[in-house]
Amino acid sequence: MRRLSVAEKEFIAQRAAAGVPSRRIAREMGRPHRTVHDHVDRLRRRPPPSGLRSARQLSLAEREEISRGLAEGLSLRVIAGGIGRAPSTVCREVSRNGGQRRYRAARAETRAVSKGRRPRVAKLAVAGPLREVVQDRLGLRWSPQQISGWLRVQYPGQGQMQVSHETIYLALFVQSRGALRKELTRQLRRGHATRRPRSYSSYNGQGRLRDVVNISERPAEAEDRAVPGHWEGDLLLGTSSTCIATLVERTSRFVMLVKIPGRRTSVEVTTAVAAKIQELPTALFRSLTWDQGKEMSEHAQFTIDTGIQIYFCDPRSPWQRGSNENTNGLLRQYFPKGQSLAGYSQADLDHVADELNSRPRQTLGFMTPSQVLAPALR
């Protein structure tokens, strides 16, 4: 099929901007409708957002200046002065990208972008032999810093058998980012199960949940979204302590909204959510993932009453409930910030949920959540 010419593309852009339907434009041009429709779709599609980076990181333009300076034989200190950076910054940049003879700006930029992607797979989660050595030394009450230093001496030149002490701490304190057993924290000198900044105070109004089951213990079928019935939950907050409980099914992104009467106490939240769950078949509610909010302090009683296990995310890790966070953003179109949510009835919330569940989603191949969940309801 003949491709669109430049003149044809300009004609389509002008007619589309005037509001003419793509089918009519195709008839005017004598071209297939699908060809015109696809081009109009590309015109209306938003360009991908450009990656934002900290001002402390080197830009591609600065890396180009470094490469040109090295080609001219300038010293690292002179190059650093020319781009307004510290000489140590330029020295580290050149050293980790092949040295002065092999440094190339494009290659350094590509490597920086790749290294900066998050979240990253934890080294101890994939390196089995290294993980076994670290766990063995922690069992001997070695500190993470001692283990890291000993590994550099014991395995020189073997990067796969070396790890920083910060990575070990991260694997211990954030269960979803590491593969070290939680009980190994008892072998640390201070025995802390978490690590906080020096300025952190436990009296921050968030409370502390007891006897929680961490998200790292959630079944694998929930993680890969293969089996329906695993849900994510949170509260959508309004003014004057008003809120709505939001429940999102991980496989289909099916939404359920729950009215919370009165103030958002743990008893009221768990009671309302438990009552809403009864509307679904038992097989469609296997687990619930929640954040560390104190509105779930009655989680143990909730599990006894419903038989549903609640798994809790790591502190300050909203991406572990990504589907729910995305849905809460969509709900702000209906419930803007700064307004009370007390005036909405359960019927109003069900109407909003029906609209979202009838909206095609790109992640579902442009099927709707209701269509994806329908087979499981039969």
Q: Please describe the biggest sheet, giving its number of strands, its sense, and whether it closes into a barrel.
A: 6 strands, mixed
- Top-tier CATH class of the largest domain: Alpha Beta
Q: Provide the number of structural domains.
A: 4
Strand content: 5-15%
Our measurement of the CA-to-CA distance between the termini, rounded to an integer number of angstroms, reads 45 Å
Shape label: flat
Number of separate strands = 6
Number of helices: 18
Order of helices and strands: HHHHHHHHHHHHEHEEEHEHEHHH
Helix content: 40-55%
Strand order within the widest sheet? Answer: 1-6-5-2-3-4
**Secondary-structure-derived class:** alpha/beta
Low-confidence stretches: 199-206
CATH superfamily of the largest domain: Ribonuclease H-like superfamily/Ribonuclease H
CATH architecture of the largest domain: 2-Layer Sandwich
CATH-defined topology of the largest domain: Nucleotidyltransferase, domain 5
Rg, Å, rounded:
27 Å
Provide the residue-averaged pLDDT. Answer: 86
Q: Tags for this entry?
A:
378 residues, alpha/beta, 4 domains, six-stranded mixed β-sheet, 18 helices, 44% helix, 8% strand, flat
